[in-house]
Amino acid sequence: MKTKVIILGICSIIVLCGCTQQMMNQPSLEKLGMISVIAVDYVDDDTMKMTVIMPQPAVEAMKHTQVFSIETDMIHKGIVEISAKADKTVTLRQLRVVMFSEEFAKKGKMKEVVDYLYKDTEVRSNTFVAVVKDSAEELLTSEYPDKQNTSVYINNLFQPRMYTYFSPFTTVHEFIYDQTNPLLDAITPYVELKNGLINIEGIAAFKDGDLSYVFTQQEGKSIQILRGQNNLSVLAVTLDKDSSDKEKVVLEFIRSKAKIKSNHDLASPKIKISLKFEGTLSEYEGEKDLANKTELASLEKEISKNIEDDVRGFLQKCQELSIDPVGLFESYRMQYKGDWPSDLTDQLLAKAEFEIVAETEVLSTGTLK
Amino acid sequence: MDVTKKKVLNGYHVVFLVQNIMIGMALLSLNNTLSPVGYSQWWFPILFGIIANITLIPMVWIALQYKDDDLFDIHEKLFGKWIGKLLNSLLIIYAIVLFAAVINTYLDLVQISALQDRTRIGHLILIILLAVFIVKGGIKSIARFCILTFFLTGWLIYFLRWGIAQGEISHLLPLFNFTASEFLDATKKGYTSMVGYEILMVFFPYIIHPKKAFKHASLGIWLTVFFYLCTAIVGVMYFSEWQLKHLFYPVLKLFQAVDLSFVERIDTLGITIWVFLILTTAGGYLWMAKKGIDSVRNKNSQYHIYGMAVFAFIVLNLPVSKVFQTTLYENVFYVSYGVILWPIILCFIHFLRKKKIEVIK
Question: CA of A34, closest CA in chain B: separation in Å?
Answer without folding.
Answer: 14
